[in-house]
Amino acid sequence: MKQSWTTFNIGNLSGKTAIVTGGNAGLGLATVHQLLMHGADVVVASRSVERGEKAVAGLGPQRGTAEVLQLDLADLASVEAFANAVKARHDKIDLLINNAGIMMTDPAVTKDGFELQLAPTTWATLR
């Protein structure tokens, strides 16, 4: 009989650092919760630090630590500020969970002039 994978298969993530975009709600918050339960230190990237901190506080005590940093993926200045903040606080990133996204939006462009649904991100600056 084939065994199914569950969150119990994650293992110990102590000493690992993860970033979860859109980590303040839905699947992103569930991902943050599991990473924290398994000991990871998690950077929760959220457009609203207040909403992110409230969501993380609602998870209760965890093995890992969480910090919420502001990130608006539709604003390249915000992406750069986020990347710089992460680089200043962490020596390495072990996991990057690109969860944030939008779909079925009315036609719009970002403040940088890119189509909103396909707005570029500059994760390469985390190197």
The helicity comes to 25-40%
Based on secondary structure, the structural category is: alpha/beta
Strand content: 5-15%
Question: What is the general shape?
Answer: globular
Order of helices and strands: EHEHEHE
User: In total, how many beta strands?
Assistant: 4
- End-to-end separation: 43 Å
Strand neighbour order, sheet with most strands: 3-2-1-4
Low-confidence stretches: 120-127
> What average pLDDT do the residues reach?
87
Largest sheet: 4 strands, parallel
Total helices: the number is 3
Q: Radius of gyration, Cα only, in angstroms?
A: 15 Å
Task: Give a verbal description of the structure.
The protein is of the alpha/beta class and 127 residues long. Helices cover 28% and strands 15% of the residues. The protein has 3 helices and 4 strands, in the order βαβαβαβ. It has a 4-stranded parallel beta sheet, sandwiched between helices. Helix 1 links the parallel strand 1 and strand 2 (41-46). The radius of gyration is 15 Å and the shape is globular. The N and C termini lie far apart (43 Å). Residues 120-127 have low confidence and may be disordered.
